[in-house]
Specification:
The chain is α/β, with parallel strands linked by helices. It is 34% helix and 20% strand. Strand 9 and strand 10 (171-173) form a beta hairpin.
């Protein structure tokens, strides 16, 4: 474990030098002058003086070298629709979306709330926001109208972006109706609601003067080229609410430069993906895992990201492994709960598909029990790496670092402190 220990030691002892090296993994429009300003703890400003943009790093910078490579692969077992986008195609869609949002008055520092199912247009909206220098607040589509209303009032968005409906287990979830009800409950309603109509809700009703159809506006901006808005490193990129396990959900506001660097470093040192490969994260974009490892992390690293709308056992318990096989997924990220659901199914599904492309399965979100870990590791014949992080951190704070050195795994443990984190165990009584 000497390589790991030295890597971690340096990240703590030589913080400035360590993160200066990691920052070279992303593009900066203006070079930063100082790695860290920690003069007012606990608030830190990373890469002071530097300007960058998440959308540029996730999309634009790849156009010259991998424009024809797949960037986003959409698979819906709920609707039977599959679509894929190269980096060039993703760039075009994001520019169209950014032009639509700009035409509705969204600009730097303003907020847009996104309440969407797992469809590509949700990713376009997120990337378009940060392209404009605006701040997105994505709300998980499973939340009811009163929960959505509280997030509207907290974020005070200029716009909302939603769909007519999503699908779960073959049943429609009427997003637009929930949005209408939430706005009625809200004290700070948005100026406009941008609607992506999937044609699922046949009884859809638009509110005159407020609701606008995304497809119509998109068609008016097919050739749009919206310049990137370069942001100070510490300017916010998004607001995301914690799950509320300690009471009322708290909004976490993420910076831009520090987040981009952290994700780029994690893709290299933790997840070990390679540009041109595919990553399959089974989370939802409404959670921090979806933000970091469905949308931004893989794209920043030049990987294809798989956006999955569906359940792990529909149409059958082999659907995830068929995706791994078809798209030659090298890195997969899921949760112990999902694996436990699969563990209850016929074990033959694990052997039906060629998953030899898969190098690692990462799990997070809750404690991982040893029987489940052994079952999936032996079934897939890959290392299963448990790791721990929070909405507040945006990436792992306890994790193995296979990109640095393969370290022993202990079932039930999320491994060692990740680089940059000086983690200590304190006694409950004595501290």
């Amino acid at each position: 474990m000497e390589k790991y220990r030295e890597f971690h030691r340096r990240s703590i002892a030589d913080r400035e030098g360590f993160w200066r090296e990691q920052a070279a993994a992303i593009d900066w429009q203006t070079p930063f002058q100082r790695v860290l300003d920690y003069d007012k703890p606990p608030f830190a400003k990373w890469f002071v003086g530097g300007t960058t943009n998440l959308c540029h790093n996730a999309v634009d910078r790849h156009l010259k070298t991998r424009g024809d490579q797949k960037a986003l692969i959409y698979i819906s077992t709920e609707t039977g629709q599959n679509r894929s986008y190269t980096f060039s195609e993703l760039h075009a869609e994001v520019n169209r979306c950014a032009a639509v949002l700009r035409s509705l008055g969204l600009g730097r520092g303003e907020r847009m709330l996104i309440y969407m199912p797992m469809v590509p247009e949700a990713v376009f909206a997120m990337l378009a926001c940060v392209r404009l220098g605006a701040i997105h607040s994505v709300v998980f589509g499973g939340f009811a109208s009163h929960s959505l209303a509280s997030r509207i009032d907290d974020a005070k968005p200029k716009l909302m972006f939603t769909a007519d409906a999503g699908m779960r287990a073959g049943k429609a979830v009427h997003y637009k109706g929930l949005v209408d009800e939430a706005i009625k409950l809200s004290e700070h309603p948005p100026e406009k609601v941008v609607l992506f109509n999937r044609g699922i809700d046949t009884g859809l009703k638009l509110v005159a003067g407020r609701d606008v159809d995304y497809a119509t506006l998109r068609d008016a901006h097919l050739d749009a080229q919206v310049p990137v808005t370069w942001l100070e490193s510490s300017e916010p990129s998004y607001i995301l609410y914690t799950s509320g396990t300690t009471g009322k959900p708290k909004g976490v506001q993420r910076d831009t430069g520090g987040y981009a660097v952290a994700l780029a470093a994690s893709m290299k040192h933790i997840y070990c993906g390679k540009p041109g490969e595919s990553m399959f994260t089974t989370s939802d974009i409404g959670w921090v895992v979806g933000h970091s490892y469905i949308v931004y992390g893989p794209l920043i690293h030049g990987m294809a990201s798989i956006l999955y709308e569906g359940l792990p056992i529909r149409p059958d318990p082999g659907v995830w492994w068929s995706i791994v096989a078809e798209h030659k997924v090298s890195v997969m990220f899921s949760s112990p709960t999902a694996i436990r659901v699969l563990k209850k199914q016929d074990p033959a599904w694990l052997k039906k598909y060629d998953v030899s492309s898969l190098r690692y399965l990462f799990l997070a979100g809750e404690p991982l029990d040893e029987p489940t870990a052994r079952w999936i590791s032996e079934g897939l014949n890959v290392p299963v790496l448990d790791h721990y992080w929070q909405t507040e951190t945006g990436w792992a704070l306890l994790s193995s670092l296979p990109g640095v050195e393969a370290t022993p795994a202990k079932f039930g443990s999320p491994s060692f402190p990740a680089y940059g984190y000086d983690v200590r165990l304190l006694h409950e009584a004595t501290g």
